[in-house]
Amino acid sequence: MSERFAERVVLVTGGATGIGAASARAFAREGARVTVVDVNDADGEATAGEIGGRFRHVDVRDEDAVRDAVEEAVRDFGRLDVLLANAGIEWTKRIVDTTLEEWERVIGVNLTGVYLCCRFALMQMVKQGSGAIVVTASPHALMTVPDAGAYAASKGGVNALTRALATELGVKLLACQMSMDVMEVQREDLIENVQDVVGVAAFLEEAAHSKITLFI
User: Fold this and answer.
1) At what angle do helices 18-29 and 41-51 cross, to 10 degrees?
2) Residues 151, 171, 200, 215: which is the catalytic one?
């Protein structure tokens, strides 16, 4: 196994289980210093312990908690090289049956959470002049199915947000919809998708040449 991320500092949100946990393991195998961020304490601690990383309890809707997680990583390791903004929740319900509270929870985690994580990560990456951000999007952002309105809206917002960030910062944007639904893929497909995430982050870091890059 190569160590493309030796001494690199990586923050993975939604890293307790599923795609996030598998990505955290893959980054760690490549030599990264990984911080696992999640609200699932038991699985988050287990994943972090398994990879020799650290766990931080963070609700990505909480501005102060997100800021503190980024600042802690920078304070302890001196920089932040990669953010995998992966935290999200699925939602299956007709829009007419979705309450405002339910709608705000989906948008809060899936979209506002990405905004907060990107915002504070980018503050550091702009300061250090480099970095890579990988955002877990969904095909639902472009073409969805009945009963997925809130989820589709949140992921469509993620796409638009990432493009807006690229426009504001004048950075290179590579957009690709990756189907990352753990419930719909076999284990070997999941592993392949996770390796794609790590490969994308490595490519972006190498291609950035002291600039910041974002990938959906």
Assistant:
1) 20
2) 151
